[in-house]
Prior knowledge:
The chain has helices at residues 15-25, 38-44, 56-63, 74-80, 106-118, 135-146, 166-171, 184-197, 211-242, 246-254, 275-288, 292-319, 347-357, 371-380, 385-391, 398-402, 415-418, 422-427, 444-450, and strands at 5-9, 30-34, 68-71, 83-86, 123-127, 152-156, 176-180, 206-210, 328-332, 361-365, 392-394, 407-410, 434-437, 453-456. The chain is an alpha/beta fold. It has a six-stranded parallel beta sheet with strand order 3-2-1-4-5-6, sandwiched between helices. It has a six-stranded parallel beta sheet with strand order 11-10-9-12-13-14, sandwiched between helices. It has a two-stranded parallel ribbon with strand order 7-8. Strand 1, helix 1 and strand 2 form a beta-alpha-beta unit. The site of nicotinamide-adenine-dinucleotide has 28 residues, from helix 5.
Amino acid sequence: MKVNRICCIGAGYVGGPTMAMIAAKCPHIHVDVVDLNAERIAAWNSDELPIYEPGLNDIVVEARGKNLFFSTDVEESIAAADLIFVSVGTPTKSYGIGAGRAADLCYIESAARMIAKNAKGPKIIVEKSTIPVRTAEAIRTILGANSDHGQFQVLSNPEFLAEGTAVEDLTEPDRILIGGERTPEGDAAVEALVSVYANWVSRDRILTTNLWSSELSKLVANAFLAQRISSINSISALCEATGADVDEVGRAIGTDSRIGPKFLKASVGFGGSCFQKDILNLVYLCEHFGLPQVSQYWHAVVQMNDWQKERFSTKIVKTLFNTVRGKKIAILGFAFKKDTNDTRESASIYVCRDLLSEGANIALYDPKVPVSTIHADLNYVGVSDEVIDRQLTICSSAEEATDQSHGLAVLTEWDEFATLDFSAIYDKMFKPAFVFDGRNVLPHDKLRELGFDVYAIGKG
Ligand code: NAD
Ligand code: UGA
């Protein structure tokens, strides 16, 4: 099987960058990225891509119109492709059975039905989306029941890129994971996909497994990563109570090669579209398979994260003499991490919601997140338009946000926040001037010298 033509269903944070990388590294392959969302496709075809990701623009511009095409021609692209990636969203279900935990597979099912309807010959279908283990079985059943020729091979190829470093991660991935059916046809399909990645990834980094191991490994990878953050965040509370310093503890344990230094940065809580969703999905799967102890164990990772966000808002209120009503608080950062405009599950959303409900006036600055996204995110967590109009101001700089404020809180670790002119900021704030560093990126000693009262996560 040779792959000459690829179609990717879903032009989101994963579909767009991964396909741009494949197109850039495999000039002999024609890559169509399709989506039902015409506005998003138009943005992929414009000078202003729909997602902000360092280095992405160059790669897209290099390949677009040559062997990389963004369109809404879903049906034609499916029909023409040898290999079809399914990269649609798999959000947490908000209704019915499993609401709040299970993955909503409606987009996966609709993609599978579109493939069945439009595929006229043999196809390799690749699950790129993160899905519950054994979803390939459901996809296979839908394809088999709705297509005349039935020559489909379903593979699992989960994506491990992180936002903000997507281009680096895709250029030099730690590993590529491909799961397939252990039959001669399955092995051939796996080899076809391996040969696409082998254009730039060395073969010893391309792991092949059975379908279920690959599907499950993606959920487990995210659960382990998130667990490290919740673990260090739990210790941050103990550091604050005892006078230890969480960065020093992180460094001390991270130099043990069995533990390793990464993902030990205490914070106001992890965000992003996937950690919470994927752990909740794992929790639901464990319950479904009659493993309540395993389910509770992983659920605690999410509970610790919720507590960390609440703890931060509570700290602000308590420190500001138990009332923030009518006080201006500068919030620096709304994205869930730096170098992305993605806000899904960002800790900042929840901290803003809590402070608005306490009556605070929030002055918010984020260098990349559009105003409309901020409003939509706050609406989604129950903040009314009336409260937004009355208590929220979106600012175009950190200086503007902090002017005449009682406190400033860093919620995203944008590089520019560490080098602000804090002396000027201090002069324009009410006294005592409070700083709440939810990312431990500010120069705390210098701030104290200037006169600020500084609270930082995990610093006793
Ligand atoms: P996204 O919401 O940004 O993009 C999904 C896109 O799919 C949307 O543009 C939507 O319009 C489109 N879509 C849905 N149904 C469709 C259909 N039937 N036909 C055509 N288009 C359709 O989502 P994302 O962040 O790219 O995530 C996609 C998957 O990848 C999820 O399962 C996620 O868990 C996983 N994942 C995401 C990341 C990440 O960093 N965001 C990393 C690894 C894995
Ligand atoms: C994460 C994983 O890192 C990717 O491997 C995975 O592909 C992706 O989820 C996914 O499945 O969607 P992402 O959420 O984009 O990637 O970003 P991370 O760098 O993992 O950060 C997640 C959150 O944890 C952010 O809010 C970040 O600020 C926080 N974090 C990260 C910490 O609080 N401390 C750390 O030490 C690391």
